[in-house]
Amino acid sequence: MxxxxxxxxxxxxxxxxxxPTSRTMRLYPLGFSRLKIxxxxxxxxNLLLSDFGNGVQSSIRxxxxxxxxxxxxxxxxxxxxxxxxxxTVDRLLCPRRLSFDSKHxxxxxxxxxxxxxxxxxxxxxxxxxxxxxxxxxxKKLSQECSSLSDVLDxxxxxxxxxxxxxxxAMWIIAKRMSDDQKYVEKQLMFNHPxxxxxxxxxxxxxxxxxxDHLLFSLHAMVKLGIPQNTLLVQTLLRVVQExxxxxxxxxLSVLSTVLEAMEPCKNVDVLRAGxxxxxxxxxxxxxxxxxxxxVIRCVGKDAPIALKRKLEMKALRELDRFSDLNSQHMFEAxxxxxxxxxxxxxxxxKMVTGNIxxxxxxxxxxxxxxxxxxxxxxxxxxxxxxxxxATTIDIWKLxxxxxxxxxxENLGFRHTDLMDLFMKKVIADPASLNMKSIIRILHVYxxxxxxYKCQTSEFQEVMATSLTGYLRHISSENLLNAVCxxxxxxxxxxxxxxxxxxxxxxxxxxxxxxERNAHKLRILAACLKLDISCHNAVDLAPPPLPSTxxxxxxxxxxxxxxxxxxGYFSKNRQLPHNYHIDFEVRMxxxxxxxxxxxxxxxSAADTQRVAVLCVPRSAYCLDLAHPRGFLxxxxxxxxxxxxxxxxxxxxxxxxxxxxxxVTLLKTKLYSAEAFLTADVNLQSTC
Length: 686
Fold this sequence. Notes:
Layout: H1 2-16, E1 25-27, E2 33-35, H2 49-55, H3 58-61, E3 67-68, E4 77-78, E5 81-83, E6 88-89, E7 105-106, E8 115-116, H4 123-131, H5 138-144, H6 148-157, H7 164-175, H8 179-191, H9 195-205, H10 211-224, H11 231-242, H12 249-261, H13 266-282, H14 289-299, H15 305-317, H16 324-337, H17 342-354, H18 361-374, H19 379-391, H20 398-411, H21 416-428, H22 435-447, H23 455-468, H24 476-488, H25 494-500, H26 503-511, H27 515-530, H28 537-540, H29 554-564, E9 569-575, E10 579-588, E11 607-615, H30 629-640, E12 643-649, H31 650-655, H32 658-669, H33 675-685
Parallel strand pairs: 1-5, 11-12
Antiparallel strand pairs: 1-2, 3-6, 4-5, 7-8, 9-10, 10-11
Helix pairs in contact: 5-7, 6-7, 7-10, 10-11, 10-12, 11-13, 12-13, 12-14, 14-15, 14-16, 16-17, 16-18, 17-19, 18-20, 20-21, 20-22, 21-23, 22-24, 24-27, 29-32
């Protein structure tokens, strides 16, 4: 009898630290004290973080298992706390505990005798097991309930540990709903009288529930749209930080997914830093590829380069175990970490290309967006995706194909078959396009400088006619973008151009802080003057280009000096209409002889001006054979000004020896008929 009295007094002291003195509490058979469920005016903001930390003492988490603490029927009343059932702490309901064997004992602080507890079946134990509640199953609960409010009603009728499962059930139910229904249900959830009680209960249990339950509840809260700056979410983040050493591979995957979905804040940043340390220690122990990819997405772009390389090596080791889904998701994971692993991307590209059929549209978009972010250009991958879309174009919506074409344009990739098919569909059904779609289509086709045989003119007319119908609704900047695209394609619909030539519109565009508007106005002015000789182009008067220091290609300059000699070419030539050329050479009309640059030419008809342009990779499409829109327009305008244009590719020149550069320029400068003569002239100048 003395033993049981001593045990009772010791446990009562432990629980007294948990019970707020200002509230009436009821003891439930859950291993902790909890407020009686009464729909009151409880506000989460009134629950201070410090109070929460002091309320759940570490002692309750280390209570021995299967020990009968209060006996039913004693009907004792102390400080407003009434016992209505047996209070037990058991293996299932209180997972965070000390392990006691049959010989362990407890020594109270008040000098009571040492009490030894033996794990024996007794009448009290039988009574305890009969009164234990069955833990709630969130999967079963999500099947039985049809709305978020139903879950909260179930919670209010009889809360069962762990309360985190109620949030998990609500998230499963919410995933089945449409966006509109989900919005309404969330509002009902926030206004439900039991919602505040559930939030308080989760905070109370956060330090004693299983770690994976804690993470699942946090994940459900984030997905349900509970604000991140609330006490509930921030409290769980702090508890997750404190218990991060309990993280196994499953918890690592959930934690990575949660952090990826959350906005940066102090607790999130600290937790992500802790996750990086944990991953650095356990990366070689990760067995599932899905977990590895979740971790790669979560560590962030500012993760240490050593950690990124370690994750890369781990992924390369697991390549043989990659499924089609793993290879598709690897692009997005590397982009999230901002790490371009060429070997890993090449291998995943092969797997994606080999299993492209049936690949969802969203996955294709994610792959292309990731390639753009990583600046990864794989012609075989892009061609495989474009071939697949072109083959199955009838099952795709126009907007979907347009989205893919926009990404291809960002990557500089031009797939002629897909663009031809899309052009045909646009010509056949222009009414299906809205204003934004028309502007984007014009940008893609003008930027990639794509033309399709005899249908190009029809396509341009259809686009111009469709856009004219939106003149009352289109903004000045969007109209300028569309007209600039038409100029690059050498098409000039005056119904769209004339509104831009008004002084108030021009002033509005020039007053904006966007320098691109001035650049596009220069393009429009040059096209109106050179392509169609429009007299209104004088009224446009865009501001001149700011003066910048220009550095011609030194290797090309040395090669021209070796080939032609000093005084036979000019560097950094600035031309009318804001055009610049790297080198100018003057030759006879047959391009068989180079003329001294200082000589006064008596007749322009006897002279051929040659413009040598040193162009970067970005001026070409990805195949490096087709010039993009601006370069094509510049070449067209230089020819109008009387130049013969020669393109020298910078990246090729850098790889060549000087003698090979001289031979390349010699081949490009002289005509085929005069090549032998040019060789003789070259020897005489040397």
